[in-house]
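Exercise 7. Predict the joint structure of the components listed below.
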Amino acid sequence: MSRLLQRYKDGDRMNHWFIALMFVLAALSGLAFFHPSMFFFANLFGGGSWTRILHPFLGLLMVLGFLGLFFRLWRDNLITAGDREWARHMGKMLSGDKAGLPPVGKYNYAQKLTFWVMALSLVVLLATGVMFWRPWFAPYFSVEAMRAAVLLHSVAAVVLILSTIMHVYAAIWVKGTIRAMTRGTVTESWAKTNHALWHQEVTKGR
Amino acid sequence: MASLQSLDVVARSATTLPTPQVRQAIPQVAKLIDESKCIGCKACQVACMNWNDLRDEVGETVGVYDNPVDLTPSSWTVMKFYEVEPKAGSLEWLIRKDGCMHCEDPGCLKACPSPGAIVKYANGIVDFISENCVGCGYCVKGCPFDVPRISQKDNKAYKCTLCSDRVSVGLEPACVKTCPTGAISFGTKDDMVSYGEKRAGELKERGFQNAGLYNPEGVGGTHVMYVLKHADKPQLEELPANPRIDPMVSLWKGLAKPLAVAGMIGAMVAGFFHYMKVGPVEDKAEKEEA
Amino acid sequence: MNPEGVARFYAVAMNEGPFPEHYEPFETPVGVNLMCPTNPKAVSNPAARVYKGDMEAFGKKEEFPYAATTYRLTEHLHFWTKHSRSNAITQPAPFVEIGEELAREKGIRQGDRVKVKSNRGEVIAACVVTKRMKALEVNGKKVHHVGIPIHWGFKGVTQNGYLANALTPFVGDANSQTPEYKAFLVNIEKA
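Solution:
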């Protein structure tokens, strides 16, 4: 009989879903301007002008929300020697063969990479986004600086979207993961299968 | 006036498929500004203000003859005065009518993300269709000449329209009509190029050996051209010597887009097929219990 | 065509003459008439019309060393276009113009507010520093000049300013009574 272990507290979960919601809104509003085929996303926000007005605020809220989780989770996401060993077996793991994988703590290597890539993308998005945020900040920057900013902003946005696609897919692919964020708890067997070291830590003395 | 009839539009911002383009058998137009005849009287500024019903605030002077000092959302053309010495000891007061160059390959149009906010008509005029403008300012980043200006009042971009409304009914632009010395002329692009080159030749005979026509190739040529007394040094008058759309803008609006869209859709499709092939990861214990 | 049908050797019915002569303006930066430097009675036009109080109001070059002149700009017409918004936008505010050398001497930079004084009054305006005006060497001395466009006043849609005529001398031409508003002496300093 599998016990339920707590993986996330209520505050963490609300914080995560707030970020996720802001991400979806910021991504859709940003994509509207990224490619003409996606301009219709602007209708979700009340038209082109409203999309242009709202997008930076949504992005800013997303970054602020992320700061909340960042400062709580960054220590758990530091890369260890065990991670590098795990990385060597990643190819086999993706094709379903989990044999030979070293045991994993709270987060595995792929999750940690995702964390840092997302964090970096958000920093770039915020810094570059401010540089051409009209009408508030854009007047303080030269046209040349803004050209570099928009290019980097779109690259960072695409990187963030790709890592989010991976992040969501992984949650669907590994059964029993999604409830960690929707209910806060996971089954003991899920923990033993996917995060054995973390399972040991949290069940010590029980 | 919002726009000429849609069939006349040959290029449209943020539009991937060709616009209706059969009505192309019309001549390309161009405005030629002969700086050797310009006296800096600013009648063109006033005519533009009056035709387009624009009035800026009455400003202050910063100690130069340029007023306003730069283009604004309500001043679509301004005279710029340059006291330069192209040859040591020989002072020249160069006066240039600044404004949109109406490029054949407009950077503003390429950069604009809002479909139909910037159009190029079959006659070459590049126009802003303000009702579609979202106020993002990408046009500012695309323009090699730093022309579009965003209004603080309505957050929309504005620039010279080459009097598209007057041209569409067979009139010359307001500035052309007003110029008292005939420094500004208007006609077909071919006619203006040959007249401009003729004027440059006349200037050369009068001692301006480097006089020439400013019609930069880097943007495909422009529908507003200058006869410059020192065409070898356009930077004397703050004109870029070899203007082109910045490569960062070309990359951002070019290769980056299909690559990114393919990447994002590809990632989702790859995930779908991965799940179908490999199946989900199930807990060891639950599998055993089952 | 003269009534007698032939040209005249000298001017008739002119208040000065019979031959045209160079005269210095009543406020002269030179101090002597270079055409007849030893004749103090012929420095300025002896037939010009000057009222008694105005004669006393002329300034001397020791106190007002710079030659000033008034002129017009293309953007405005006399004093009435200061009420026209389109004109005002193209040339909004009063200014005076000086050459770069004089600006350097006085520590004036482009756009600074300056005070231009004559013996009769003063004008405060922005300063345009230009390469187009250079000092002239007259009688072995350097003479700077100050350009004072008219057009602004105390009412209008332009920025308000002093009337240029606060500075000008009251001298009527010997024949036409045209005032000598285009040649007088001033001093200039940062305001």
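Discussion. DSSP finds nine helices and eleven strands in chain B.
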